[in-house]
Amino acid sequence: MKSVCIVLAGEAGQGIQTIEELITRTAKLSGLHVFATKEYMSRVRGGLNSTTVIIGDVEARGFVQTCDIFVPLTSEAVNRYSERIGFHTHLLADRAIVDEHIEDLYFEIKKLAIRVDLADMIKESGGSKYTNTLYAGILCGLLGCDQQVLFKELGKKFNAKDETVYYQEEKKAKLGIEFAEKVTKDMDLEFKPEVKDELKDRMLLNGTQAVGLGAIAGGCNFISNYPMSPATGVMVFLAEHAGRHGIFVEQAEDEISAINMGIGAWYAGAQAMVTTSGGGFALMTEGLSLAGAMESPMVIHLAQRPGPATGLPTRTEQGDLLFSIFGGHGEFPRIVYAPGSLEEAFDLTHKAFEMADKHCVPVIILTDQYFLDSYYDIEGLDLDKVNKNRDVIRTQEDYCRYLKVLDDTPGRGIPGHGEGLVQTDSDEHDDCGHITEEKRDRVWQVEMRGGKYHDMIDDHVQPILIGPEDYEYLLIGWGSTYWSIKEVFESCLPKGLAYLHFPQVWPIPPGTKEKLEQAHATVVIENNSTAQFAHLLQMVTGVEITARLLQYDGHPFTKDLLWDYIPYYGKEVRD
After folding, report:
1. Alpha carbon of 383 to those of 204, 213, 300, 351: distances in Å?
2. pTM for the whole thing?
3. Where are the domains of the chain?
């Protein structure tokens, strides 16, 4: 089994994304597993960005620091991403870039460098000065991808623009493939994974699309948002499919309007969603509290990025966990999901609509930049789990929205669906939604809202245990750390150690205390500086978390770092 990690680096506008798109699609359609993720500076052009692509005959989903092939499109990229060059890395670049940096590299790297005479190859192709198609051809050649698939992908990308341009780009790709065949023979390189026909038809999906598809499956027919990276992609995805699925899309003037539109849409009978990041969610918290007071369903996609304030707008972090749980004034129930895989993102997003409708509470889907921008191939999505039943009643003339008798409520009505008046308010209210300041009504309504936590117990998503059930030591993670932890853990399988992943982070699922108490020591791994989930677990269960592994530099956990930690921790267990 083999997988090859490739890092593409250069300035924005140099075509890194084109190379990534061509090689990942070509590799997948050739019968290989693919994974890709990107990091980029917050600017339209210039700066230095990179894309990580892993291609192989074995699934790879976790982020890797050091790579097998490093492709810098500028000289500056070698300096900026030097930590991604390991002793086994092949530097694949223009001859001038390699020669400029060759003396600064490890001795082992010098003999692994692959010099490309880009100027000569461009001149020979008769094409434009851009080199992305050349590099795509070289990489596809090194990996043994199907050439005809690459040419078809080039046709999709360039043929519609200008047939002459397409033939120039195809010639570049062919020159790249020929170069790869020659250098593979001359340097005795062995990169080619084993292609498998059954992989060709798998879905290629990223986190943004998984959330969007989950929303469609859940019955979303209204989305309002104010653009904010990295959440905007979900609105764009739903807008692209709005006509086919009957979705009304509104770009509001700000996040306050966006969430209030969403609440109004639910009141009127729609199934609404808003998508935002931390700064936008800060503006939405008054509306969030309004939804709590009204007992209105609401689905919020909160895509985390590093704060405070504008922070690092194009980087990743798990810094808004406690904000999502405790944001909004006053006390009211909510549910917070944090998917770790694309399949979970799909399942939890459509479940968010089901739970919001059933329990009349806000449901928050917590993702982050790394999760949304990462994509890989999957077998498919489980549509059998989708429940589109709606908890809406036809109202009677004497309908009272907030009446509760013998642990039962009349259900949620919508205006015009029945004979009753559907009345609600942001102030405290009585059983029928009329404003009140009576102590009896206040206590009753507070207890009714708080009692929903008990009602939601049966619908909790339990954490996933990976490893032995009789563990002595326990790793704990949530959200986008899932794959990196899981892959390293399953690679080394330290004795007595297990890994517990939480797709639902609020309310903390029942039975969590017992799982923590079983372990002699617990370690929480998360992308923030204050160990937010560790504090949350301690607060709810009373069980002290033994250790924390934290990262807050704007980048996801790498498997390289976890490889230094998890096997060592397993060694401590054995000793």
Report:
1. 17, 11, 22, 12
2. 0.95
3. 3-199, 204-385, 392-457, 461-574
